[in-house]
Amino acid sequence: MHQNEHSFDPHPTASAITDSRGSYDERLNHILTAATAAMARLGYAKASMREVAKAAGVSLAGLYHYFDSKERMLFLIQFRAFGSLLNNLREKLCGVDDPQDQLRVMVREHLAYFAANMGALKVCSHELDSLTGSAYDETRDIRYEYYGVTRRIIDRLLDARGGMAHTDRHVATMALFGTLNWLYRWYDPRRGPSVSTVANQIADQFLQGLLGVPASENESTQETVP
Q1: Distance between CA atoms of 33 and 78, rounded to whole angstroms?
Q2: For a tag on the chain, would you pick the N or C end, based on fewer CB atoms within 10 A?
Q3: Number of helices (H) and strands (E), helices first, in the chain?
Q4: Does residue 56 form part of some domain?
């Protein structure tokens, strides 16, 4: 029997395996992007598997090849978002010692990530309680890790200031997240001020309200024109 071009190779090369893996990951990411947009537009409850398949341009059977449930997609959307935020923030904080500078890094990186992923911000802000079981637990845990890094920055801010014993640090931390996570309601990075401009103003307002510090005079607060 002669082999033809469709014959199965029992010993695939490393490059073939890598190409196959890359193609799988690309398709999975494409589906997750479509699922994020559908859930942001319709809400988790109304974004059916059929709706996601249509948005992704795949068959319903093809969608089930990648995800056995809608909840699995929601879990990956949230876990990936907060995993990226957490790892990036830890990396960017390396070598930054001043807590005010740390706060500015946190605000800038959070805003920059979600400005590029606004649908994910809406989904992450609204749909944690749509998860159940271990998916809920794992997502809650990584979100809490991210909260913890930010809370420690605020602790250092207040400790350095002194005389701030009356300030509820959990309230301060959640107020900051409330400001940042409401961005999807009003901020359009394509038409509005630049990410750096918005990030600096939010950081200035937060620091002024919490500590009474003067506004930053950083040049990046000025709107840039391409």
Answers
A1: 12
A2: C
A3: 9, 0
A4: yes
